[in-house]
Q: What sequence folds into this?
């Protein structure tokens, strides 16, 4: 489906040989990725590998130290501020924490992009906001303040807000965490409907392997600064790599380390100098 | 030894780098001010919140500072049989120095720390990133309105402080200690100069408002986005902004009254 020199127009986001570091730690060491247009693309990987960072690099909030990110054939890190903002209106992003504005009500939060970028009459704004809120099941919560929402609810409000400007692409950072089974089911359904009805491209970052594999058209698994595997959900499930198998099944033991890089456990515990 | 030297160099470079970032930030902030023409509501809301935050503390402190000042001055002036001059000395002290400076310090402690905490929390909870991703410039929508509001509010607050201070001095000097009320006011009227005293005080308070707001907003923007980072940035705001107010006061006084 996507191959590194595939047809240009099929690819919405193209990442080539991207490097990025935080201080002395290299987070990415030459990532290549093609996000196909029009599908749901999942990015998975162990906690702390830099999935959120990757989304921020695609949204040009961070700059890679080397390599390029193209969004719809434009090098997103070379744009002027004005052009960048124009492109960002075509990207929605759902933050891990929701990132709602704390001094505005749920309704005003969802209406915010419209108020900033359009001059629609109030009746239309109300109509648009309420349909989005209804879709995420929170029409009744419109007058609450963000501080009065649970984490899962906040994320659903953020989803409603991200859909407000009819973007070309939406990036979801961990949309499933903090959702009970019912809202999880509804949410998965919703992502699916939204994606096909609005002809969107979705990028989903998630730990929830089964849920993610069930809705994604294409999956990348990232670890240790590189893409370790890319393919359709079936390719991933039947991958020959031990690493991928362990990640998909969630085994504690295997090639994936659970520990943050550290010195040897035994010698650390019984460090002689503290005796 | 070499380690120490290295550490010193690192701190120095870090400091200069931060100073540089602070100035770039200020430049972008000033450029964003233009956009406020279309959104005056944002500024008015901020002036209201900054003003309300600080007004009570300003009035109470102004009153007490004026009263204490009158007590102290009276005791000295009476020795020279010059207690009629109480009004003019009180007014000059307040307008030229204590009004702007004490207001600046209180403003840094109350409004400055609140600004840093607010913006730091917006950063820590990804609200600033969220705005960026909605193609909304936080400089235009968040930073510039707060900055302008502080610059407008400071002279108003300082004027309030001086006015209440004079009132406090009047209460103690005239009502309590028996200075002649006519002399109190008429000497004040004839000896306080509009440009020299009033306007210089206003200039000072505008400069203090500018610097306190700049430091407070930058510290919030530049903080480490964790709860600990925000609390540290808040402390830094109060310390740095207060020191800046005192240092600048010396500089401005030397420029204004030494010609
Ligand atoms: N502001 C920052 N400053 C320094 N290091 C950071 C910062 N943000 C993230 N990191 C580091 O970058 C790495 C990647 O972080 P990131 O948030 O992208 O991980 P993630 O894959 O999204 O993890 P999770 O699945 O837990 O959300 C982390 O190991 C973290 O230590
Ligand atoms: Mg993350």
A:
């Amino acid at each position: 489906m996507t191959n590194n020199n595939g047809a240009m127009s099929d690819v919405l986001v193209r990442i080539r040989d991207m490097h990025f570091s935080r201080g002395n730690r290299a987070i990415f060491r030459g990532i290549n990725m093609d996000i196909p247009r029009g599908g749901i693309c999942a990015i998975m990987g162990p906690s702390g590998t830099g999935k959120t960072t990757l989304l921020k690099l695609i949204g040009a909030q961070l700059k890679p130290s080397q390599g390029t990110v193209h969004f719809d054939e434009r090098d997103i890190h070379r744009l002027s501020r004005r052009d960048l903002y124009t492109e960002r209106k075509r990207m929605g992003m759902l933050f891990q924490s929701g990132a709602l504005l704390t001094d505005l009500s749920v309704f005003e939060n969802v209406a915010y992009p419209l108020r900033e970028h359009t001059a629609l009459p109030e009746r239309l704004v109300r109509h648009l906001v309420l349909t989005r809120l209804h879709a995420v099941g929170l029409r009744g919560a419109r007058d609450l303040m963000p501080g009065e929402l649970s984490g899962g609810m906040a994320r659903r409000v953020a989803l409603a807000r991200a859909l407000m400007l009819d973007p070309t692409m939406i990036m979801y950072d961990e949309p499933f965490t903090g959702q009970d089974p019912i809202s999880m089911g509804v949410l998965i359904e919703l992502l699916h409907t939204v994606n096909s009805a609005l002809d969107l491209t979705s990028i989903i970052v998630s730990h929830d392997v089964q849920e993610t594999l069930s809705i994604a058209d294409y999956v990348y698994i990232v670890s240790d600064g590189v893409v370790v595997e890319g393919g359709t959900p079936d390719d991933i499930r039947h991958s020959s790599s031990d690493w991928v198998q362990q990640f998909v099944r969630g085994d504690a033991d295997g090639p994936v380390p659970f520990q943050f890089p550290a010195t040897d456990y035994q010698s650390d515990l019984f460090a002689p100098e503290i005796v | 030894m070499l380690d120490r030297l290295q550490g010193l160099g690192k701190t120095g470079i870090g400091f200069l780098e931060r100073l540089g970032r602070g100035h770039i930030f200020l430049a972008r902030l000033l450029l964003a001010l233009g956009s406020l023409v279309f959104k005056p509501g944002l500024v008015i809301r901020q002036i209201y919140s900054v003003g309300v935050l600080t007004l009570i503390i300003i009035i109470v402190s102004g009153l007490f500072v004026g009263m204490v000042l009158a007590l102290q001055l009276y005791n000295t002036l009476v020795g020279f049989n010059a207690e009629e001059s109480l009004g003019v000395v009180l007014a000059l002290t307040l307008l030229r120095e204590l009004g702007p400076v004490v207001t600046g310090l209180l403003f840094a402690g109350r409004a400055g720390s609140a600004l840093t905490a607010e913006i730091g929390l917006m950063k820590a909870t990804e609200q600033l990133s969220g705005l960026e991703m909605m193609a909304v410039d936080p400089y235009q929508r968040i930073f510039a309105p707060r900055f302008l509001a502080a610059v407008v509010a400071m002279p108003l607050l300082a004027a309030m402080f001086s006015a209440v201070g004079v009132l406090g001095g009047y209460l103690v000097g005239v009502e309590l200690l028996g200075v002649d009320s006519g002399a109190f006011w008429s000497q004040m009227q004839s000896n306080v100069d509009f440009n020299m005293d009033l306007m210089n005080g206003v200039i000072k308070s505008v400069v203090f408002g500018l610097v306190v707001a700049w430091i407070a907003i930058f510290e919030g923007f530049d903080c480490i986005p964790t709860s600990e980072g925000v609390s540290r940035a808040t402390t830094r705001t109060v310390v740095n902004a207060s020191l800046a107010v005192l240092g600048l006061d010396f500089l401005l006084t030397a420029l204004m009254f030494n010609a």
Observations:
- The beta strands of chain A are 11-22, 25-36, 40-44, 66-71, 74-75, 91-94, 169-173, 201-205, 218-223, 226-231.
- The longest strand of chain A covers residues 11-22.
